[in-house]
Structure prediction request, 526 residues.
Amino acid sequence: MDSQKNFQTFMRSAFGLEPGGRLGAQLEGICTSLTVPRADRADLDLSCDRVLYLASGSAKLVASASRGREQIVAFQFAGDLVSIPSGGHHRYTLTALADAALLAFPAREFFDCIAGEQESARVLIERLRTALHRCRDKAVGLGQKNAQERVASFLLAMAERIGVSDGNSCLLELPMSRRDVGDSLGLTIETVSRQITSLRETGLIATQGRSEITLLDMAGLARCSGGHEAARAQTRKLPQFDLDQGDGGDAALAMAATGGFAS
Amino acid sequence: MDSQKNFQTFMRSAFGLEPGGRLGAQLEGICTSLTVPRADRADLDLSCDRVLYLASGSAKLVASASRGREQIVAFQFAGDLVSIPSGGHHRYTLTALADAALLAFPAREFFDCIAGEQESARVLIERLRTALHRCRDKAVGLGQKNAQERVASFLLAMAERIGVSDGNSCLLELPMSRRDVGDSLGLTIETVSRQITSLRETGLIATQGRSEITLLDMAGLARCSGGHEAARAQTRKLPQFDLDQGDGGDAALAMAATGGFAS
DNA sequence: CGACGTGTTGATAGCTTTCAATGGGTGTGG
DNA sequence: CCACACCCATTGAAAGCTATCAACACGTCG
Prediction:
């Protein structure tokens, strides 16, 4: 396997560094390379917290609650960094959606290394902050949105990351199943399916096969997604001024402190 | 006001540094001090992302969606750092639950300063990671738990942060209203109230007045909270083995990557 | 003491889940 | 290349849970 190559990609794309330096040597020393076939779990040594770099492929990060319930906390694509804790209330696993190659680091050592180099620390902090803000957005969606809004938000968020823009519309090749979508949105597969059907009947999307979706009306989807800046509703019960035009997108996922990085 | 004193507290408690050094001078130069009376919003200049340090008091971080819906993304207590983005899908505001004193920094400059000093960078990264993991936990709760589980989880999480242990039981003086609890859990005040009543009737908690709650049976609450390591349920439909004893707590909030801090 | 804000309790409606059955897509083997 | 089997997705009907609407109780404050 080309773990060497993956490592170089990691250094350059994740931190904009050449592998040659001191930092590169340190990181390479604590790095483990592994490949994960589609639908398999990454076999991680969770004796300590880990940081993963997804060199290629895509994956889902899943939290398991009791009674077999699973919440997909994030979908990961090539180039992403993932922080995986070893302890805590829920157990987390990373499962490949498409054959994946990844690099694994022990978290403490990884952060120690990065913290020692200003530019890398800056980049890492920024990434963590983005992840936090995305997670907050997810929390808002799970806490406040209905099924239709969740699915619309999901499609827009995916378009943001892996959509192929085609003039006015956007082509989406979903790497995950309906179950995965449901586990990510806190809905059942049936509900997800019904909402997709509904969006298709409304003319906002079109579907080809079971994994291809074309977003025909991004602005319309944004209106259905229930997010975006509050339409200056003063009172909680105010009717619904429909968003002030909406900002079209979804992309730059909203950002603000979640759980604040507390003491 | 004693903004001077707050800044010193910030340097020492947040980063374990003496205010004298180069870093201290830099941070002090970009720092703004403000006080926020109970129930007021922090009046922040959101022309750019901000980082806040809560020197004293407590606060809620609120995200506003459309139709006046509000999701409390986190409760913050003295000593917490909070990241507040200026753009994005939802608008975030910080509102004091008790008279608060806080320091505000422009995010970019703040992180640039911190990244330049290894130990501080390490601390900041760790805090961000904790915040991310807490946020993921919140997402799991919002996505997978029912009302009873959410309220039980909430009480345990609060006990973790501001509870006063009293032998077997734990005394909790909630600084927030039922509405705040609801907005945090994605439930209505009525549902929160009903669940608290239910827990009281079960003997797991006792209430005094409208804001005092005594947790009488932490283990029992943990069993009600639906979280914790999956009870090795192999199949999604397996009945429910009730957790394997449960790990009592809630505290060390689960940890794993949310949204992964992506590219 | 009375008024307001907050919390509790009750009844009903709405949305999502659950349970069940059908349809479609994909992949393998003949 | 077609047939079959299996998995996944879709659709329908009913149940369950939470939101909503409404009324009442409690506590605080003027």
User: Anything to note?
Assistant: Chain A touches chain B through 95 residues (CB under 8 Å). Strands of chain A lie at 32-36, 50-64, 70-77, 81-84, 91-106, 164-166, 169-173, 205-208, 212-215.
